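Lab notebook, bench 4. Still working through the backlog of constructs that have no structural model yet. Next entry is a single chain of 71 residues. Request: give me the structure tokens for it.
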Amino acid sequence: MRFKTILILIFAAIIVIFSLQNAEITDVKFLFWKLSISRVLVILGSFAIGIFLGILISQKRKITNNNNNKE
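Model written out:
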């Protein structure tokens, strides 16, 4: 396996372990909403959003670089 893949797997495992150790119910306030949900969902949801945004930014850079190379 490539180094980057191993690093990603280790980081994901650390996030999962950290999440499971923080499974208490917590209040989340955002603008006008207040939710009582598990911290695991908050942590993993934030992690998933971060991954999604990272992928989007990465793809945008690839597309921009490809368009610059064609011109």
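Notes after review: The chain has a mean pLDDT of 83. DSSP finds two helices and two strands in the chain. Flag for follow-up if needed.
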